[in-house]
Amino acid sequence: MYILSLHQDGDETEIGIFNSLEEGREFISKLDAYKAEEEDGFLYETLVLDKIPTYVEVTYRGNIVPFSRFMFRGDSDVDIFWSEIFNLSEEGSGMVPSATLVDAYGVNNEDVKGYIERREANFKRAKEFLEKKGYEVTRAYFGSEDGEAILYKEADSDDWHFLTHMDPGFADGDDLDIVLEEFEE
Fold it and tell me: Mapping DSSP to helix (H, G, I), strand (E, B) and coil, where does residue 119 land?
């Protein structure tokens, strides 16, 4: 099942749940304001704000959903998001096939445990490496768009320096190896 939600300038409006993406898109595309564009293999769906009437009713399978441009506070187009949701009351067969947000990155559920373990081990490795060289180390930017990063400074200094973001490349170790090799030079 999929939840249809509309996002604009930090505000979210949940519209409803559909059995499939196809059904959800059949519903939302009844609005003349619906626009779908594919870019770099991704489908971006929006409602063009200027094309949303002051009031319109969308009828779908006997359900009437009112829409209005006044539902939205901003002046930008409205982003359409689909979130797959699972009925956990029904008997399952293992890991829920979805993704989990880890810092700023979505990670497939079956990979989350290993990803976090590798990420934390690489942070520990970088921290130990820098501390052996006499630096203080901290994590910063938690919750930022690019995610957490490692900062370091000399013990008697107030100037922090950026080492690397703790992104998927860092978790895999590839980026960390490059950064630490460059640090040695």
Answer: helix
Round to whole Å and give the CA distance between 124 and 79: 39
3-class SS letters over 129-184: HHHHCCEEEEEECCCCCCCCEEEEEECCCCCCEEEEECCHHHHHCHHHHHHHHHHH
Pairing of the two strands 105-108 and 99-102: antiparallel
Q: How far apart, in Å, are the Cα atoms of 89 and each of 16, 21, 93, 95?
A: 19, 22, 12, 14
Structural tokens at position 55: 């009031």
Residue 40's region, left for phi above 0, alpha for psi from -120 to 50, else beta, is left
User: What pLDDT, in 10s, does the model give residues 11-66?
Assistant: 899 999 999 999 999 999 999 999 999 988 888 999 999 999 999 999 999 999 99
CA dihedral (142, 167, 44, 1) positive or negative:
negative
Distance CA 107, CA 164 (A): 19
Q: pTM of the full predicted structure? A: 0.68
Three-state secondary structure call for residue 21 = helix
d(CA 149, CA 123): 9
